[in-house]
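Justification of computing resources. Each target in the renewal requires a structure prediction run like the one illustrated here; the chain below, 191 residues long, is used simply to show the kind of job we budget for.
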Amino acid sequence: MAFTLPELPYARDALEPHMSRETLEFHYGKHHKTYVDTANKLIAGTEFENTTLDEAVKKASGKLFNNVAQIWNHNFFWEGLTPSQTAPGKKLADALVKQFGGIDDFKKLMTETAIGTFGSGWAWLVKKPDGTLAVSSTSNAGNPLTGGDKPLLTVDVWEHAYYIDYRNARATYLEHYWALVNWAFVEKNLG
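Resulting structure tokens:
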């Protein structure tokens, strides 16, 4: 079963002015596509040829892990964005208040975590096995599934996610990121 590059859930210019069409052309159309193409070459004739993407992320290592995890991370990242400004629903808002003290407190922690992620990686809102929420960071292709956490939201802090629009200003990218968060997606992931 080959991995596929899913269609974006919006037009490539739909996230402007916060994320440009040019960024999506490179980030989705080149980087994300390359992860898919490379993973498909790597799984040919292996035990991973007929696994789901989730299974591959949990079981793969080395170069294969890097590519399948990056497919998963990007698929999830794109779904977590929307061109329509939304707000957290009551269930999610209550969970964020309970865990972090408030929605703004959560955003501040997530932003600090994303900015503080050294080098390339991801910042995550996750649901722990005990049901609590946490903010975490992974390096490179790291994915919370490998540690048993359930991802609810992520932000990509690899430079290719923001360099075209914001150059080296990761903090500015994060300011714009919050205008794009698909809160309905996050609440659906919360369960």
